[in-house]
Amino acid sequence: MSGLRAVLLRELYAGLVTPLAWMFLVVFVLLAGLCTFVLGDFFARGQADLTAFFDFVPWLLLVLVPAAGMRQWAEERQAGTLELLLALPVTPLAALLGKYLAALLYVALALALTFPLWLTVNALGHPDNGAILAAYLGSLLLGAALLAVATCASLSTRSAPVAYVLALALGLLYLLPGTPQVQRALAAALPAALPPAVARFSMLVHFQAIQRGVLDFPDLAFFLLTIAAWLMASLLLLRRQAGAP
Fold first, then answer.
1. What is the count of structural domains for the chain?
2. How far apart are the C-alpha atoms of 70 and 155, rounded to whole Å?
3. Residue 32 lies in a domain
4. For all residues of the chain together, what is the average pLDDT?
5. 204 found inside a domain
6. What is the pTM of this model?
């Protein structure tokens, strides 16, 4: 695919020299430790597992992934460099995937930097490492889906802060229907069959299924189709802005 590698390397290099990218990694790791050991009552629970960490992961990703994706395209449009990028021998699809994969690598790196938590629970006991590995995979899929949403939001505006707020709001719409509080409210207001149907469209429900160590096809397919749908919407926006057929 023409130009994908060049765009990917360009974005990775830009991330290495941008303080915001390093701040994203540091903040994610610090919040992961805080949520696990303080808010999650890790030691009071008396169990050597990472349940406390993964319970907070969706909300950490909800706040931090839009920060990783908001600048992808909004700043290109604001600075007037989008036209220059698309004038190069780079197809819109290659440009889109190059930027998306670069941001996804930073999300994956942020998750990988929490490995001391995994080492800690193995030092303290004998956790189910297969379930932990599955939960990390689910976290990456959730992050990839939220990043695809953030990519589309970034293409919809010239303002990075507006893109962040839009991606955050859309992410909330994907997560909140899976929370017990929203499910109880829906059960009280809607027919009995509707709340479970609404919950099936929640990223949180599918993530929690994977978090338990069960890699079912419907959960994996949900994330993959969500990513594909938002990237397709992003490609349509990009082609319209580039005047491509």
1. 1
2. 9
3. yes
4. 86
5. no
6. 0.91
